[in-house]
Amino acid sequence: MDLNLLIALDALLDEGGVGAAADRLHLSQPAMSRTLGRIRKATGDPILVRSGREMLPTPYAERIRDEVHQIVTRAQTVLTPTTRIDPAALDRTFTLQCNDVVADALLTRLAARLTATAPGVRLRFLGEAVTTVDELRRGHVDFQITDTAPPHAETRSATVLTDTLAVAGHHDLPRDPSTWEGFAALPHIVVSRRGRVHDRIDDLLDRRGLRRRVAFTVPTLALALRTMTVAADLITVAPRTLAGPALPPASRLYPLPAPTPAVPAVLAWHARHDRDPAHGWMRELITRTLTGVGEGRVTPSGTSPDEAE
């Protein structure tokens, strides 16, 4: 039996269609269709059947989905050598998906360091997706940084930074946003990549019988902070540690009227990269950089004060 069929079967079951599986494995659709035919012949099961415009897995395919994925992941791990790497000789592109605040914190601290010590390494930043497509499982990104741990067992994660929320606004606001009444009275800018106007802050206000006026909804914090400079009474809720350095002139951070749960920054990657030394090196660098930001001990060059000396 051709064990490459397991890789193709894993992609077909994960993607749920020939076209997407072909894209993932860098094959043509006819080639993937022929491979599906070979899988059907080997298993004696149709695997995927058409239902309208969709392809649905058979009961047999549903039963073997997780086992096939585990076998493929284990095989990739076994065949990936674990060796030390020389960052100066590394020639590789890493794709990182995160919001603009995290991207700014990483880029400003890693740019000089990577240019000097790993000139062949390229970082490709992608904004947060507006869909729920799992880019890690599809292999489209190497790392994701979000505020929640991934739900899939084959995805690894680590909390690399814990931040708190604060109110960003002009240094001389007409109302004090540190009180619930002042906070609700001021016009808000809500940051949401999906354009949502209701979030956890509104739940806190609802419990106190208050409502806020959302004047603007924008996809990035950078745009929210820039908007504050043209309207002195606007405020937005932002992560204190990460947003602080990005505040425009004449702006400051105010405490929220009441403490809110901490906001974690969770670094996630797929298990197939666990034994990849280059991936592990970049993973450690990202972790060390963001952990240092949270502890206030990382310089803009990405090194600790001790290293900078």
Automatic annotation (TrEMBL):
PROSITE patterns, per database record: HTH_LYSR (PS50931)
Domain HTH lysR-type intervals: 1-58
Keyword Transcription: yes
Keywords from the named record: DNA-binding, Transcription, Transcription regulation
Keyword NAD appears in the UniProt entry: no
Family: Belongs to the LysR transcriptional regulatory family.
Protein name in the entry: LysR family transcriptional regulator
